[in-house]
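Now for one record:
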Amino acid sequence: MRVVAKIGTASVTDDNGVIDRGAIAKLCGEVAVLRKQGHEAIIVSSGAVAAGVAAVGLHARPTDMPTLQAISAAGQSRLLEVYNAELERHGLVGAQLLVDSMDFVTRNQYLHLRSTMNRLLELGCVPIVNENDAIANDELRYGDNDRIAALIANGVGADVLVLLTDTDGVFTADPRTDSTATLVPFVKADDPLLSISADANGSARGSGGMASKLTAARMASWSGIRSVIAPANRRGVLSGAVSDELVGTTFAPHDRTLSARKLWIAFAAEVSGTVVVDAGARRALTDRPNSLLPAGVTGVSGTFELGQVVDITDGDAVFARGMAAMSAADATLAVGESGVGHVVHRDDLVILA
């Protein structure tokens, strides 16, 4: 099997943001067990920013982007030092991969990234992936790399995505405030749980939360990949997840499969505007693969440009998302017109409902 294991900031650093070597040693030991069982593993690891906070002596995580990006560079090198040392104890070679959003939406970059990851696995390496926070063009918004882990899993054709966290899985309510909350052991591919709005708040050291993990689980499901949200401190959690044991909350794969590009459009891209369509256009988009034409558009909001992502709504609910084939200004001028191009091409359109 091919396994992608993502671990969050709160699980690889202590309360002061210092790298928890014991936690990384445990994870690397579990990866070594997978390798002995004949499986391949990719690690997606958060923690660079938190480690940078501790490394440069700050008292709290900063909020301004220049400082966040600067300290992530200081933290990333220290984080990889620990991973390399712990993997080496098992005779394994770690290989750092820093990615950004364009690696998934630009086809040439995506193909290069996929080729590199596959070759590293062929060479017996353990890729260690993180978002390239130090030079990211926009805010660090992926939510502790959860979405990136799902995109990586899609790209390498993983069999299972394991999202390691500081909770036991998904509960019926927040167990921190509700004593009656119980663990949800299994979620079907069409379960409404994959669409709910969960806690979006991460720890003081990280930027994720259960909401981003549910989004990642939905992305994996729509890639045909089984995913598991499980506690990072559980003994044998990776082997258990691979063996489909009850180690947290398991999400079944969906029959529907999307490309990494469409997953990025649907779940990872920043939405820059909204296009309102009539009932006929909605039926045309949802009943079969069609492009969105200006003739079915009744309104446009936002200041999006060509290539930016927009929500598509019938006025009541957002049912699709796509990459704009024209700017908001041009789309506004073309509202209701025929034969003037596409607002969103079908190759860049994802039906959400």
Notes: Residues 139-143, 196-208 have pLDDT under 50 and may be disordered.
